[in-house]
Every structure is written in structure tokens, then in C-alpha cells.
Amino acid sequence: MDKSGTAKKRGLGKGLGALIVNTQAQPPLETAEALPGHESVQMVAVDAIRPNPRQPRSHFDEGALQELAASIREHGIIQPLIVTRAPDEPDRYWLIAGERRWRAARLAQLAEVPAILREATPQQLMEWALVENVQRADLNPLEEATAYQVLMEEFHLTQAEIAERVGKSRSAIANSVRLLQLPVPVQQALIDEKISAGHARALLALPDPPTMLQALEQVVSRGLNVRQTEQLVRQVLTRAEPDPTPDTPEDPWREMLAHLENRFRAALGTRVHLNRNPDGTGKLVVHFYSDEDLDHLYRVIAGAEE
Hints:
The chain is an alpha/beta fold. Among the domains are: 16-120, Conserved hypothetical protein from pyrococcus furiosus pfu- 392566-001, ParB domain; 241-302, no CATH class. It contains twelve helices and seven strands. It has a five-stranded mixed beta sheet, with helices on both faces. A hairpin with a 5-residue loop joins β6 and β7 (282-286). It is elongated, with a radius of gyration of 25 Å.
């Protein structure tokens, strides 16, 4: 099936560039001293390091880890890990960046790994882990959306603030978070890469979970790409319109209104109902499901999208 929505590596503005030093131009890691403008690299016991408790990534490909472990056995770790001291265990460390390298180092049975020690708040642990994973395109769409949601709910960051931190547009953050509204089976299909984030966003325009699941079945069984899925959604929405009663003459505007309604749905990415009265008046009803959705709709309608 067309994976046009598959994640690609994306450039970031602020983020890990302020955290990571280039070790290739430094002395050997075992003897490295603090250099002007840099932080020193020290060797830390692998067993003293714990995964970042704020790590948004939940899946690590075992085959890729084995390949990285083989490379580490031959070449060592070129880029140091970034760690912070565990608050209640002075001899333990939490990872800020480099969990794949740490896991691969354990597979390679290394006793120590090169690391840079940083002070970090719980919010920074979350932000820096998110930035690293987004930079490396390591998160699936739902892991990324969940991380954004945590930053908004637990740390009270706005979508604009998150966008600045990870180097994306505010609308991209809003579209990502909207994926959490999907029914669980659709979310699972996204995790299993049966559909892409583009497919999932198209399905969000459907009115209810049962309709989404029916459409999902067709998308997967027929191998539809994102554009074909959007067309399927438009067809489903058009069929959902109530037929005129037998004693009511066909409205000559009906076909045009259905077409306009579908265009509104596609443009706004949400449910829309358009009604027209015989005198030419009417109403346009746009549905939203959260404050963030409302903010997204305002920006689209007002032409303020980034």
C-alpha cells in the first residue's frame, strides 16, 4: 500500500544542537578533559544508567538494536550519551538522549559508555527526549501525539510553544494531537503501519467510530493510498446525507450543497453540516472536539495557519 504518510527525517530549529558536542574532534574519550566552550565527556557505568522516565518512545526495533550493538563492538560509541543524576539516587543517572545507544551498549556487553552530565528538570527530560526522537524520526505518530499531549496537559505548554521547541508548525502539532481521537482499532492500524498518519487524518472527518472502522476495513483490504482514502471519506459522507421524503420535491441546490459541504470538510478536517433555506439563507455548522480543535479551526478560517 502507498506509504505516502511514512515519517521522514525532519530538520529542527532549537533542540539537541544545544546539548550535544562533537566528540570526533576531541581527544580519546577515556582521557578527554573539558575543552574551551565544551563540556567534558566522562565514562559512566552502563548499569548505573536508567531509561528516561519521560521517554515518549515505547517501541525499539530489536533487529536494529542488534545491528547497532555489532557496530558498537567494532567501533565503540562515537556520540556520547547525555544523562542527568537521578534525584533520589546520587550514584544513578537518567538518560536524556541516547537510549538506543545505551540499549545497544548493554547488548554489546560494554561495562561503560561515554556520557555528558547535564542538570535537567522533569519537563526538560520530556522535551529533550521528544526532540531527539522527532529529529531521528524514531516515534510512531501516536507516540509523538501522546508526548505533545503530556506537554500540554502536565506542563501547560501551548501548541505554539511545543512547535517552537521541536521545530514544527503549530498546525502540525494540532494535527498530530487530533490522532488521539481515533478509535483504538484505527490507532492500532496506525501503530502496525497498516495505514499512515495521512490515512488516519482523513478518517477523522467521519462522524463516528463505527463508520471509521468500516472505512478502515476498506482502506486496508483495498490498499488505498491517502488520496483515495480522502475520496472514500467524501463518498461516505455524501451517502450519510438524509434523502428527501417522498412528498418533498427534490431541492435543485442539493447536489451543489453536498459538493460544498464536502469541500468544507476536506478543508477544515472535521464534520461540517451545511443547510440552505428556500430564501437563500442558511447555516453552516462546524463541529470541534476540543479547545485545540477550536483554535485550529479559527486559524484555518481566519487564514492564520503557520
